[in-house]
Specification:
Pnp Oxidase, Chain A, 3-stranded antiparallel sheet, globular, FMN binding
Length: 201
């Protein structure tokens, strides 16, 4: 099968995000300029640089109470900070509860029961007990082609690692089993790993 996205795929559901899979989930926490809190998952998320460490996530839809975007991007525009909370399998239902189209006044921490803790370097809350939290300062917001498509880039200025996830000096993902997004309504979980040496190592 071959199709041009501009012509449509002819399938019952769009296969695009099932092709680019699995995708890590950036569970983004932000604080609005009025002090209200927001927590939402984004599967267009990844690390993009080592030095300095940088991450990005993309928001691809809008809410009527936020104009051209969603709560996360709107808050980051105002405060220029955000926190990425890593999602473990055990928190899948809590994370999913925060993915709804809640109005801007809803505190998803309270709604989902996710415990919050203060960040160390930025004025924002993080998910307490997450395997890791990345405190970020905004570097750039890019408006991408298409309606409501924004890519948010941030420099990581603080890192929290849960102590039980550190094994012999290595952050061991099998201690918490990362949750990843697939296509449609599907997710997967990391339960095994293997190593490959690069040529010449």
């Amino acid at each position: 099968m071959f199709y041009r996205p501009e012509d449509g795929h002819g399938l019952p559901h769009n296969p695009f995000n099932a092709v680019v899979t699995p995708r890590p989930i950036g569970w983004i926490s932000t604080r609005a300029s009025d002090g209200s809190e927001n927590l939402a998952p984004y599967s267009f998320f990844n690390a993009v640089a080592y030095v300095p460490p940088q991450v990005m996530f993309a928001s691809t839809s809008a809410k009527p109470d936020r104009g051209d975007t969603k709560d996360s991007v709107a808050n980051i525009r105002d405060t220029e900070v955000f926190c990425v909370n890593i999602v473990e399998y055990a928190m899948r239902d809590v994370m999913n509860q925060t993915s709804g189209p809640w109005d801007r006044d809803t505190d998803e921490f309270k709604l989902s029961g996710a415990e919050k803790a203060p960040c160390e370097t930025i004025a924002c809350s993080r998910v307490a007990g997450a395997p890791a939290n990345l405190e970020c300062r905004l570097t750039e917001i890019l408006q991408l082609p298409g309606e409501a498509n924004f890519a948010v880039f941030g420099e990581v200025v603080g890192v929290h690692l849960r102590d039980d996830c550190l094994v012999d000096g290595i952050f061991d993902v099998l201690r918490f089993n990362p949750l990843s997004r697939m296509g449609y309504r599907d997710y997967t979980v990391v339960r095994e790993k293997f190593a490959l040496k690069r040529p010449g190592e």
